[in-house]
Automatic annotation (TrEMBL):
Transmembrane segments: none annotated. Keywords: ATP-binding, Coiled coil, DNA damage, DNA repair, Nucleotide-binding. GO terms for biological process: DNA recombination; DNA repair; SOS response. May be involved in recombinational repair of damaged DNA. This is DNA repair protein RecN. One of its GO terms (cellular component) is bacterial nucleoid. Residues 1-521 form the RecF/RecN/SMC N-terminal domain. Residues 177-204, 347-374 form a coiled coil. It comes from Arthrobacter crystallopoietes BAB-32. It comes from the Bacteria. Belongs to the RecN family. InterPro entries: DNA_recomb/repair_RecN, P-loop_NTPase, RecF/RecN/SMC_N.
Length: 573
């Protein structure tokens, strides 16, 4: 709900704070005091088009601020968080600040939770928070989508289950239809793709690359290209380890063996030398092993001649073709081939897939037809019940001849919510044609129609805050009392703010706010200034205000007694 609204330099209001609370809040005041500026401020906070004419004369800008308290799961809070708003949470609830500034030159700025945001974002958040019903603003249930959603919520659980099953089947139906359309319209392209993949895979299969083969062949080719240098190095190293008859100098094997035998002769005299002799024996074994490996290496080099190098280069050339065409490395070529085979299987299975999709769509068509029929039946019954209940409310609101008509017509094709076109129509009096909401009725009548609808829908389709401007226009007496009572009924579920001039309505208020007007006399230098202030009234002040609204005589004991009687009567009702 909205906890507080602050208005600065808007119309005749210089600076005012409206403390709001739960239940029904009424805004009253003399004609021209600026009551409608409250609705204007809310419109600004809802992202309405900026109007430089609303800026107070002489001021640079008008500002509307609101402190809103929401539950953590509120969609409005989620949208604000997406916009980067700073949100304060405590006592299981969250607090959000909304600000709209309109400059005298017409430029506008919006802030959500202390962060600058587009005005469109403010409008998206406002749609989840406030519904305004006024002389020219009928935002709720204006579109067919909103009317369909309201009717479906009124229908309740009887509709929820078949509608959920329908939406699931409809989603699958759309996916299958889209896939079938793709298969049919892209048949030639898919055939060409399959042929290209087939040729590519045949080429890869013919060459038959192995994982890591390109790197292995590269290493082997490098080795064979430098065979003479490798052979010479291996032989020299071998001779250094095992000289045999090729050199007169001692080799590593002989030198290590001499050192070992020398230490063995005295190892019994000192255990440390015995340990060193053992380690030299290990070195001798290692040298012998390395010498044998070098001898084998040299022999192997002698067996790998130019023919092997030619084979390697030819194989590398074949692999290079694959790398150039399909992927940077042979391993990636093999990965590409695996994906390509899967895609080829999918493409070559088109005829079977088409048959399967056609059968699935036929089954889904039958299922959707059955479910949509059930949905239409439930909606038809709910529409009749909703129209009846709204009609009863309209009778109590001094519109006994007005009827709400809910038409449910075939849409001609299946949609995401069934096969129905839903329209809320108003028949203002017998003999008049039923027309869409917002047409064929005055602003005051339309506000009462919307009040009747909201009272009926309040338990199943609530919005946190409702605002009614001049909902009591053109009525009085008993009808005014009924309007007040129904506003109080609606306020049991949501926060309701009403701008009214009728004491019968104001008597039902949980919070009574008055707009006071003051003026300075015109002089030769200027035309005078009109300003307004806003104040939450105490219980005693409420009696005074209702007396003023009743008779224009705040101090009249008779008027005050009547005002007190209205308040007591409202409490009883």
């Amino acid at each position: 709900m909205i906890e507080e609204i602050r208005i600065s330099n808007l119309g005749v209001i210089t600076d005012a704070t409206l403390p709001l609370g739960k239940g029904l809040s009424v805004v009253t005041g003399e004609t021209g005091a600026g009551k409608t500026m409250v609705v204007t401020a809310l419109g600004m906070l809802l992202g309405a088009r900026s109007d430089a004419g609303a800026v107070r004369t002489g001021a640079r800008s008008a500002v509307a601020e609101a402190v809103v308290r929401l539950v953590p799961e509120s969609p409005a809070l989620a949208r604000a968080a997406e916009a980067g708003a700073a949100i304060e949470e405590y006592d299981g609830e969250a607090e959000l600040m909304l600000v709209r500034t309109v400059n005298a030159d017409g430029r506008s700025r919006a802030h959500v939770g202390g962060r600058s945001a587009p005005v469109g974002t403010l409008a998206e958040i406002g749609e989840q928070l406030v519904v305004v019903h006024g002389q020219s603003d009928q935002l709720r249930l204006k579109s067919q989508a909103a009317q369909r959603e309201a009717l479906d919520k009124f229908a309740g659980n009887k509709l929820a289950k078949p509608l959920a099953a329908y939406r699931k089947a409809y989603g699958r139906w759309r996916e299958a239809a889209r896939e079938l359309q793709t298969l049919r319209t892209e048949a030639r392209e898919r055939l060409r793709e399959a042929e290209a993949l087939q040729l590519a895979l045949e080429e890869i299969d013919r060459i038959d690359p192995q994982p890591g083969e390109d790197e292995a062949l590269k290493a082997e080719a490098t080795k064979l290209a430098n065979v003479e240098q490798l052979r010479a190095a291996a032989q020299l190293a071998h001779q250094a380890l095992v000289a045999e008859e090729f050199t007169e100098s001692g080799d590593a094997t002989s030198l290590v063996d001499t050192a070992k035998r020398t230490l063995e002769q005295v190892q019994e005299d000192d255990p440390e030398l015995a340990k060193s002799a053992g380690r030299l024996a290990e070195v001798g074994y290692i040298i012998a092993d390395v010498a044998a490996e070098l001898a084998s290496y040299s022999a192997a080099l002698d067996s790998e001649g130019p023919e092997r190098l030619a084979e390697l280069e030819a194989r590398r050339a074949d692999l290079a073709v694959l790398v150039r065409k399909y992927a940077p490395t042979i391993d990636e070529v093999l990965e590409w081939a695996a994906v390509a085979r899967s895609r080829l299987d999918e493409l070559t299975d088109d005829s079977t897939r088409i048959e399967s999709l056609e059968a699935e769509l036929a089954s889904l068509d039958a299922e959707l037809a059955s479910l949509s029929g059930t949905i239409t039946g439930v909606r038809t019954k709910a529409a009749a019940e909703l129209a009846k209940k709204v009609g009863q409310e309209l009778s109590a609101l001094a519109m006994p001849d007005a009827k709400l008509q809910i038409d449910i017509e075939p849409a001609g094709e299946l949609g995401p919510y069934g096969a129905d076109t839903i329209a809320f129509l108003l028949r203002p009096h017998p003999g008049a044609p039923a027309r869409p909401l917002g047409k064929g009725a005055s602003g005051g009548e339309l506000s009462r129609v919307m009040l009747a609808i909201e009272v009926v829908l309040a338990a199943v389709d609530p919005v946190p805050t409702f605002v009614f401007d001049e909902v009591d226009s053109g009525v009085g007496g008993k009808a005014a009392v009924e309007i007040g009572r129904r506003l109080a009924m609606l306020a049991r579920y949501v926060q309701v703010i009403v701008v009214t001039h009728l004491p019968q309505v104001a008597a039902f208020a949980d919070n009574h706010i008055r707009v006071f007007k003051s003026s300075t006399k015109a002089t030769a230098k200027d035309d005078g200034v009109t300003a307004s202030d806003v104040r939450l009234l105490s219980e005693e002040e409420r009696v005074t205000e209702l007396a003023r609204m009743l008779a224009g005589q705040e101090e009249s004991e008779l008027a005050r007694a009547h005002a007190q009687e209205l308040i007591e009567g409202a409490k009883e009702r």
